[in-house]
Design goal:
By secondary structure, the protein is mostly helical. The chain has six helices and two strands.
Length: about 160
């Protein structure tokens, strides 16, 4: 995979971690918008979503052009397990899983990068497209966290 994508995988997580440095740890689990996610819940979702991403890439790499349902955290009991963890534990696991993603994606030959998985709304996507989609999804949650941090509340999870 090209260095641009690998760098984005590294830098986006680094950006998130830097944003969290200045957040009061007592604020992480607060819900400034009733019935919307806290920063902690966004972190749990991002951590769990990395596991989902790795599972999806493994299925795609089998070469069978799988149809992959949309992931909804609210329907995933493991997401709620992640929510019970301490924020520091989530971050620690997320950093380890991100390195796994970087190592996996970075070592794939072009033939495997070209393998396809089908998203219900976006259609046929190769591994590079799935990785870009992963980064865009993550960026949406980083934006929400940024808004919560600055008390500028975004009304969607």
């Amino acid at each position: 995979m090209d260095e641009f994508l690998k760098n984005n995988l590294k830098k986006q997580l680094a950006f998130l971690l830097r944003q969290l440095e200045s957040v009061d740890k007592t604020f992480l689990k607060e819900h400034p918008i009733p019935e919307k996610w806290s920063i902690h819940e966004h972190l749990a979702h991002l951590g769990r979503y990395q596991e989902i991403f790795l599972e999806r890439i493994a299925v795609i790499l089998k070469g069978e052009v799988p149809y992959l349902e949309r992931y909804k955290a609210e329907n995933d009991p493991i997401f709620y397990d992640w929510c019970r963890w301490d924020s520091a534990e989530i971050i620690e696991k997320a950093v380890l899983d991100r390195q796994t993603i970087i190592d996996l994606i970075g070592d794939l030959p072009k033939m495997q990068i070209a393998q396809i998985g089908v998203h219900p709304k976006l259609g046929r996507m190769n591994v590079e497209d799935w990785t870009n989609f992963f980064l865009l999804h993550e960026a949406h949650h980083i934006y929400a966290i940024f808004g919560l941090k600055h008390r500028f509340y975004i009304t969607e999870n």
